[in-house]
Amino acid sequence: MYPSKIQSSEHHPYFKTYLDQLEERPLIDALTHGAVETNNFFRNLPENKHEFQYAENKWTPKEILLHIIDSERAFSYRALFIARTDNANLEGFDENTFAENSNANDRDMADLLKEYNSVRAATINLFESFSDETLQRVGKANGNTFSVRVAGFLSCGHEIHHRKVIKERYL
Questions:
Q1: If you average pLDDT over every residue of the chain, what do you get?
Q2: pLDDT attached to residue 111
Q3: How far is CA 49 from CA 31, 38, 61, 112, in A?
Q4: Which structural domain range is residue 105 located in?
Q5: C-alpha to C-alpha distance for 38 and 44, rounded to whole angstroms
Q6: Cα–Cα distances in Å, from 68 out to 7, 138, 139?
Q7: Number of domains in the chain
Q8: First to last CA, the chain
Q9: HEC profile of the chain
Q10: What CATH number is given to the structural domain containing 134?
Q11: pLDDT tens per residue, the chain (171 residues)?
């Protein structure tokens, strides 16, 4: 399954920003490649930038990494729910509330990356279990159409987006 196969009818237009970040590679390859890139990026981030904010009320790189983790969990849950039920209709989540309650800055980067890797491994296992037919199933999330395959590719595009934000505004 490639990102070019995704139809605009499978997701809210807001997600196009993340999907446009993707290279044309199969979903499992994109997830695996993204894990390598994200690990390398955060491992090489200078320690004095881990809790840096470029402006008041902006997230730190630690908070961004935990936001990536939380979002991937949410995307995977959406994919699982849509894959396993008919007429799925899931609530959204407020990423700012999640970040405020994350305590990300109380953790070290190695611990956050350990959690990221666990979540990514689970995501890969989940998406490997889906048939092509299942990947095309559609439900609702936060009141908007959302397909199983969009959930997988969003995990990839979302982390690319946030790595770019850190490069542009934090380094």
A1: 96
A2: 98
A3: 26, 16, 7, 15
A4: 3-169
A5: 10
A6: 24, 23, 22
A7: 1
A8: 35
A9: CCHHHCCHHHCCHHHHHHHCCCCCCCHHHHHHHHHHHHHHHHHCCCHHHCCCCCCCCCCCHHHHHHHHHHHHHHHHHHHHHHHHCCCCEECCCCHHHHHHCCCHHHCCHHHHHHHHHHHHHHHHHHHHHCCHHHHCCEEEECCEEEEHHHHHHHHHHHHHHHHHHHHHHCC
A10: 1.20.120.450
A11: 899 999 999 999 999 999 999 999 999 999 999 999 999 999 999 999 999 999 999 999 999 999 999 999 999 999 999 999 988 888 888 898 999 999 999 999 999 999 999 999 999 999 999 999 999 999 999 999 999 999 999 999 999 999 999 999 999
Query: What single letter denotes the amino acid at residue 125?
Result: N
**d(Cα 17, Cα 128) in Å, to the nearest integer?**
25
Q: Which two tokens stand for residue 110?
A: 């190695």
Radius of gyration of the chain (CA): 16
Residue with tokens 């499978």: 10
Q: Residue 143, class by beta-carbon neighbours within 10 Å (0-12 exposed, 13-18 middle, 19+ buried)?
A: exposed
Residues in the chain, how many? Answer: 171
Rounded Cα gap, residues 145 and 132, in angstroms? 18
